[in-house]
Amino acid sequence: MLAAVRRSPQLSAVEAARGAKQRPDRTTDGLRSLPAASPPTWDGLHAVINTLHRKNLLPDDLPHTRSPSVMLIHLLSELALSLSDHRRPGRDLGAASVEPKAEGVQARFETECIIWLITGRLGVRAAATGSLKGYLKYGELMPEFSRDRVLQTVDTIEGLFGGALAFGIMIREEMPSLFELDDSLAV
């Protein structure tokens, strides 16, 4: 089911899961990655950061990195923890925070699922980590988790940016320069 949700960015996560449940023969191998579109750009990440800042959801600390993909994954991780009520009081944005708090292992697994689903739906290269990787790659036992909380948090995060397709476009934005660069000066 997770793979079907990951491969259906045109649908909300809840709708994709419902479709996968009704037609299990349609689910695909979760290990095959989607063809990655162009990687996120810094211009796109600035648009994401500005959106989060306007909605008062920007994390207090951002990593010092040169990689927009690393920054995006960090932002998604912080949003997943916050909106699924695993950290700080959850914001009232329609996330499934009405469920009781999860244990540490469950919270980590749910966060890993949320990040893996969103990055896959955006076409961003990001490998599964932790216990999710063990489950997908090695067939390890999956810890208990709230499927509804994961799917609703994915929908909530994507909804902040107008849905998965709009979010994918946003993270790849390129702002034109105000100055023309002479070809002889281009690197």
TrEMBL record:
<feature type="region of interest" description="Disordered">
    <location>
        <begin position="1"/>
        <end position="38"/>
    </location>
</feature>
<protein>
    <submittedName>
        <fullName>Uncharacterized protein</fullName>
    </submittedName>
</protein>
